[in-house]
Amino acid sequence: MHLVLGTFSSPELTADPRGATTVDPAIVAAERALRRGAIAEARRLLAGRGEAPALVLLGVCAWQESGPRDAIAWFRAATERSPDDGMAHGYLALALVSVGMVDAARDALDRALGLAPESFTVRLISAQYAYRLGLYPEAVRRLECALALGASDAASYALARALLQRVRDRGQGSFERRVGTVPLARLVARARQGMGRLSIGSRLRSVLGRLRQEESSCPPCSSTV
Fold it and tell me: Which of 11, 27, 30, 97 is the most buried (most CB within 10 A)?
């Protein structure tokens, strides 16, 4: 599944201390360029920028060019530049889970949801995180929650709706034997990776326990359509 962008152009991202809100035109233009696949244009627009939204978008550029592993450094830089930016922590979580760093990803996602529980983009990231773990019913729930919050632009909303249908189709079309909502094949593979002196049964129980935590890690959404 390709990375599905949320929105970076919400006014609340650039609220100033006096209470006024502005939307940074360079951030908006770079976001639009990325959605068109114009990575070079996005990089040009973001050249010399060091604020968290710009660093996150540069991470997205790296992701689209060479994959999530190369995006991690950009997303980490964004969280260091702005530790209270929920979106930066969210994208870091998505990159980490995409390269198999599940525990670190969970920590980053928990941070993102704690900072921005009502953010459409953070909820959309949370849904993609569940999808990448193979938790399709949970991904559907999280996508529905994101859609209930509403996006600040029609393009983001349409992307989320399309992703919701894709996840539903994937879940309905999966014929893997499952334990709860977790594919058994995935559990066996993870168990064998780090089995050591433990029996397969005890390792499976351990992995199953961790994955089931993911199903309840996303707090409920309080907003409605």
Answer: 30
Element (H, E) at 168: helix 154-173
Structural domain includes residue 5: no
Residue appearing with tokens 């990231």: 125
> Mean pLDDT for each consecutive 10-residue tract of the chain (225 residues)?
53 36 77 89 94 92 92 96 94 94 96 92 90 90 87 75 83 51 53 48 49 52 37
- Structural domain count of the chain: 1
Q: How many CB atoms lie within 10 A of CB 36?
A: 9
Task: Provide the pairing of β-strand 178-179 with 182-183.
Answer: antiparallel
Q: How far is 28 from 49, CA to CA, in rounded Å?
A: 13
Flag whether the pTM goes above 0.70: yes
CA distance 85 to 52: 7
Residue 138 tokens read as 């949970």
CATH code for the domain in which residue 160 is found: 1.25.40.10
List Cβ neighbours of 87 (8 Å cut-off, separation of 6 or more): 6, 8, 13, 52, 53, 56, 112, 116, 119, 121, 122, 125
77, amino acid identity: A
Instruction: Give the largest Cα separation in the chain, rounded.
Output: 60
